[in-house]
TrEMBL record:
Residues 47-203 form the Glycosyl hydrolases family 2 sugar binding domain. Keywords: Glycosidase, Hydrolase, Signal. This is Malectin domain-containing carbohydrate-binding protein. Gene3D superfamilies: Galactose-binding domain-like (2.60.120.260), Galactose-binding lectin (2.60.120.430), Glycosidases (3.20.20.80), Immunoglobulins (2.60.40.10). Residues 328-643 form the Glycoside hydrolase family 2 catalytic domain. Residues 666-722 form the DUF4982 domain. Residues 1-21 form the signal peptide. Belongs to the glycosyl hydrolase 2 family. SUPFAM superfamilies: (Trans)glycosidases, beta-Galactosidase/glucuronidase domain, Galactose-binding domain-like.
Amino acid sequence: MQVRFTRLAATLALGSLAAVAGPSQAETVKLSQKSGTEREVTELSQGWKFHFGPETPAVTAPDFQDDGWQTVSVPHTWNRIGTYAPARTPDTGNAQGTGWYRLTVAAPAAAPDMRQYLDFAAVGAVADVWVNGKHVGTHKGAFSRFRLDVTDAWKAGADNLIVVRADNSKPEPGNATSSVIPLGGDFFVHGGIYRNVSLLQLPSASIDPLDYGGPGTYARAAQVTESQAVIDVRTRLRNAGTGRNLTLTTQITDAKGSIVATAAQPVSLEKGTADVAQRLTIKSPHRWNGRADPYMYAVSATLSDGATVLDKVTQPLGIRTFRFDPDAGFFLNGQHVKLKGVSRHQDWLGSGWALTPEQHRKDMELIEELGANTIRQAHYQHADAWSDLADEAGMVVWAEIPYVSGPSLTGGEGTPQLWANAEQQLRELIRQDFNHPAVMMWSIGNEVDSSAMLGVSKEPTKPLALLKRLQEVAKEEDPSRPTTMADCCEDLGMMAKTAGEQVVGTADLVGYNRYYGWYYPKPLEARAELGAQLDKFHVKHPQLPISVSEYGAGGAVSQHSDDVTSGFVNFIGRPHPEEYEAWVHEQTWPAIAARDFVFASWVWNMFDFASDLRGEGDSIDLNDKGLVTADRKVRKDAFWFYKVAWSDTPAIHFAGKHYVARAYPVMTVKAYANAPAARLVINGRTIGEAPCPDNVCEWKQVPLAPGPNKAVVTATANGETVSDEMTWTGPDPMKQGIRIDAGNLAGSVLGKRQFGSDTFVTGGKPMVLNLGGFGKMTSGPPRTVEAAELRLFDYWRQGTDFSYGIPVPDGDWTVTLHLFEPSAVPPETQAVTVKANGTNVLDALNVAKAAGGSRKELVRSFPVQVSGGLLSLDFNAVGGNVSLAAIEVAR
Ligand code: GCB
């Protein structure tokens, strides 16, 4: 922020900053001064030496030889975790521990009263810094900016050695991170100097750079009417020298740079710090009005000594009013706005957390393209550059500290050290983000009531006391914004339970993280269950503004479903077909949209992100609930659903564009449109018009010709006609046959045989052999089956009665069934009868006996003759269950 908003000041009396030539050490970095900045800010990005691993204190000494170390530039991280592959490889990049950085800089000469500060925009997760062998500070917390006054160790006009130790060890007793939030959570804490570092040189009397890393100048609109806005500005000054009489001049400029308000105040500044309050008035203020008009002023505070400017800080200023109503939702500048948006984590595939400005920009562009108007900055403070982008885009931001999953590794309320750290990270967040008009709520916790989960602690913790303390701290820091928190478990009683404390109601607002359609039983009832639960919360907490802070499902763009309602939903395993994720959003968004009292919702998540708890979908170490892949390259179906649903202009898009080579000769064609109905034409033939309730238009059982099927969908809304095109490849059943992977939510290709996902079925239920698990890839010892194709037995369909009606061209076919008995000790009476088109083809067959034991594949084939285009297969258990892994129908 400082650099971006700090243009001016040719008249600064900051000493000459031409870089002096340093001694002739090869690794010495020459400082290059940012020209035109009002503060003397020097980026320290190039020429760092880096080494990962434990080291002795000798590395902090100037004479240490770091020749063998790697040369890196910052932003830098040693972690590159997460990839679209089934298993980790040697270069997974998930190392946790200590990384060391060394940089020798040829420092500029400086006037005697100049102070030298090192500014770290973030270091993951605990940083220790030495200058010329002297320890100058420690910072705990991976997300906030910190500055250190290094003057006493610094040698102006000479070489200076900066050494940084960054530590992202797993938070475990004895590690530097054991009292630093977060103690756990479903995301990977990357290590290293992953945001910028700079040297800041200021006179001994300046705007305070040591104010929890904040800008030192804080502005807020105290009163706003059409005719005027009253802006209160508080500036913290620091004087390391003797008392001085100075002047603090604060100015507000409009977007064109014209001065619209000025206040000047004499300040008698003693040694130490002092807060100066100023009030300015802007006539006929132009509001910051969200996405519609994110108009910004700038506020600058200038400290001067007569004619000489000592320091100047410029910050963004957006003038807006907002409120949250428990019944009517969110209001911006008096107008109701339904907040609809996404959460964002800060990692990119291949870059980890070390992002470039272009990467931040790309993320914001995608979120804007989606049509969102709000962003949850999960689960920690995001980069200043990111919050700038949010201001400029007009996003309403939920800003958050990483108090995630609980306050203690061992149960209880957490240690004083942990409390102090949480408090520090909250003060840093609020001061550093205070001036961003986009930020409208401070989140003080995420799922802290689920603390027995996610491997944080075995014993239940008590999160409430710390949450209450953080609520107080947030109010001390900023009474003008509400607090919020994300709850996991209130009234859930399913997979996650609270540790017994009522945490909802501690913050001013609440967000519910709820995964109907995904983590909970009865996925097919997602819409009704979410709606009913939100209504219950509204009745239970009539005074509390309610939002949905997370919802979603995993989606892998290489895994596909022919029928999302038939297969087993393995939420922390494989597969995660893209179509299922989209379906969960199609189901749940209307339940949110229909409720005005739900002030906001945030899809979990905009992007797939790194988490070492995961081995799911088509990836390892990634949470795949993104609307867009972690490389930002592929927009998943769910992205298009929202893009259409949230669009103000007519829009249409086919779903299923990544599932080109279809398994079955019929398909459900789906398109998203914000029109009442849409027309489908395939290969020039009109299929018909379908209604598009809740933006989803569907044509079931659409026949596909073998080879390319060019589809065109068209809709008219507001007098405008929009269309989309797609070509799907139909299979040739006469050559390829038709194959069903029973119980599986996704299809797959095994050699030359393509199996579609489970479909065409009535009755029975899908089953799983090995359920995935958080923190490990399977829960319990893996169960195996003796079978030719193990893959077909990951899932199966089980029941006493179920039947398939499969579209098969007329003629003679061979049907092959893959059966097995999953229970170790099946009932003696277990036996299966199967009818094909009404005729018995298997008669009271005991599967385990016929296969020679339980969990052994039994293959049975028989001829059938199909007429009328339909093969019906009826499965009936005479005793026990029928367990069917796959069906093959071939010539
Ligand atoms: C949650 C957590 C979030 C996880 C998410 C998930 O409730 O707040 O950190 O990533 O669920 O995907 O399970």
